[in-house]
């Protein structure tokens, strides 16, 4: 319903265009996405997570960090006289706003605070195929405890969501940044080299171990601008250590034994041990949960355990749920630290995956039956009958177009995926019947109007799957 | 879960502030709003409405209309090198974007198209107490038919939503702009006078009929800037006609008879007759549905029937669902007209009303029970038991804080509104029992771990209302 001022009569016509990088969701796509979100939120809630919805708009200073991020942030302005010059901006993730809420009003929250949030975020990235400037996130975070039990619960969330979406063949990859960073530093590299090391390691899937080994040994390399800079220049024995390290997949014990002399690494090992033990107690273990010492997830954000989730039937789609521990949550706002761990659902990727795997149990359909009135007297009777069905929780609709031609109305039902048409005209009104036409089976018969509810419930009950979709 | 680039280590601390005119929703408020939205969407779906979600961001030219609106529109900009100079803006309602989608891709829609949409809109209005710059709308529209049957269905939607929210004492006020405009023109006023007339009529509740009569008779008046301009200067006999007109509440027949010589008005009467007949067939009639000839709803937007909904116990809160027919939907984009009618839920008002009337059947609560582990061995057992309960659809959580002091954990349960605590320590583990503590009744007893599911289901089932809230 519109605002009184929004349309301009007699104005020049405007070409209806959606800006690049943004999209609309038509009914079927919306229903498919809703299926994923409903299942996910149900899982979050079953673990005691609570909803927190932050404003889409924040002060620019709350958001802006690195140059890279600042470039992507959308700023807002309008021309109201009371515009105070405050720099308003659209949020680009759901985590900084969470930190802002907690920092400004910590006493309102019962720690550990477990929250979930579904919401759009905006990033003005350079336009790329398949990348959007507005996308939906569906996050869960546990704030206020650094116990690995919280990270274990995040692993359980991932498992429960995958199961609830009907995904069976998945792997939750698990690592701890202290293991990875501790190992890198043990090679004699400096903290400033960690990111270079991770960028090379990230190429493992693409160029294989041989290619990675060459890059690690290079004494010079070229940066993004083509400038020659110092490479890591690792010696052959150190490269052998790297090989040994990254091949210890699913073997935390071996990592612990092989690198016993690195204390930082051992802290990570202890943390993962607890996560793996607790997850196993809840029934989540290998092959669904796998330790992978090469997993990094981003460059310098996470501080402890990190997770990602691969669908083994379509690994190329990338991780569908990822996250980790970020004990630096509050550092932007406060010197008091507040540890946190969390996860984000890749809604668009998951949607594509479920479509590809044919697991979307939903339709864009909304009603069980269409009333097809052939004239205005019949229309009145249809209003009465439809109301009765709805009172009994049977969703149904009445054809409302002016065109009362039967063919037009049946086409409408077909296009909307409604199989039951209830046709009512002068003849039927006199006989006190309604003509039931099943567009799928072709069945056609008159039923007494007094039997309508009973007959429709029978059909609807026999087609239970469809109904549960509709009523969700 | 955050973006790797969003936080800046060692940066200056930033004050955590939410911009004025924006708000966050804490768990209880979110749950309350969700209760309203779920009920509303369930009703929309039961009538065969389908979800359509448009982008939050539009081209400025798609949105901007009158000066008044343009001032309120938030524009977006960022500093990416590929920024094309396109003027991106945040939508300020859900109707213009609907028109944009239909105009650009009409063949994708099966007309009449019945859509619903829940989404934020943004308006950079001058800041006022209780007015927000970001607010949620929840609209339903029927596009592609000018049959009053569609308007009748909108009336049924309002009634069904009110009933489903537990609101009994409400009035849907109904009028047709052709009746009101036809009458105003019949007084000898020009189309340009309509808005002045409506502005005066709008004061009826505040200054009474006497005050309105004086304003209608004034030969001069002052505009917003204090400039003297021509008033309507109605003669006493015309003012008497106005009095007769506006007092014909709930009496369409009288209006039809008294003003039989005004053809435009008669078109409106015919339309309302059909709406009232069809609504009555579906059980919606006086006193829930009332014709009110003085109802206008905005100045020059609506073209036919208009509706608003008053809660009779708290009329001051204003209309909680309003809308009307706007057959000019597409005029911005196309010379082909596409008739439309629709409604918008006043989410914030309704939330305030349900709170005031004590009708919110929801809690911020998310879990039925809290596991309280007293050490790490107990924690592992709790992970296993909680998983079992969740598999049986009993939402529950485990205390995850590092502090394993019983008092701290019980306080956590209390603050989160969880009444059942399941305490597990060394002693209980040895005896294979768990200590159940009901924080409301004070009951405390040991139960065998093997009986846990059975015992908890008993408690949960006896507290059904709470469970259904939780599981929704």
Write the layout of secondary structure elements.
The structure is a homodimer of 472-residue chains.
Chain A: H1 27-46, E1 50-51, E2 57-59, H2 60-63, H3 67-72, E3 75-77, E4 88-90, H4 95-104, E5 113-122, E6 134-143, H5 148-164, E7 170-176, H6 177-186, H7 194-201, H8 204-217, E8 220-222, E9 228-230, H9 236-246, H10 252-258, H11 263-281, E10 289-291, E11 305-311, E12 321-325, E13 340-346, H12 347-356, E14 369-373, H13 376-391, E15 396-398, H14 406-415, E16 420-424, H15 426-431, E17 433-438, E18 444-448, H16 452-462, H17 464-471
Walk me through the structure:
2 copies of one chain form a homodimer. The first copy, chain A, has 472 residues and is an alpha+beta fold. The first copy, chain A, has 2 domains: 27-50 and 92-206 and 237-356, BirA Bifunctional Protein, domain 2 (2-Layer Sandwich), CATH 3.30.930; 369-471, 3-Layer(aba) Sandwich (Rossmann fold). Chain A has 17 helices and 18 strands. The first copy, chain A, has helices at 27-46, 60-63, 67-72, 95-104, 148-164, 177-186, 194-201, 204-217, 236-246, 252-258, 263-281, 347-356, 376-391, 406-415, 426-431, 452-462, 464-471; strands spanning 50-51, 57-59, 75-77, 88-90, 113-122, 134-143, 170-176, 220-222, 228-230, 289-291, 305-311, 321-325, 340-346, 369-373, 396-398, 420-424, 433-438, 444-448. In chain A, strands 1-5-6-13-12-11-7-10 form an 8-stranded mixed beta sheet. In chain A, helix 6 runs antiparallel to helix 11. The longest helix of chain A has 20 residues, at 27-46. Chain A is elongated. The relative contact order of chain A is 0.10. Strand 3 of chain A pairs antiparallel with strand 3 (75-77) of chain B.
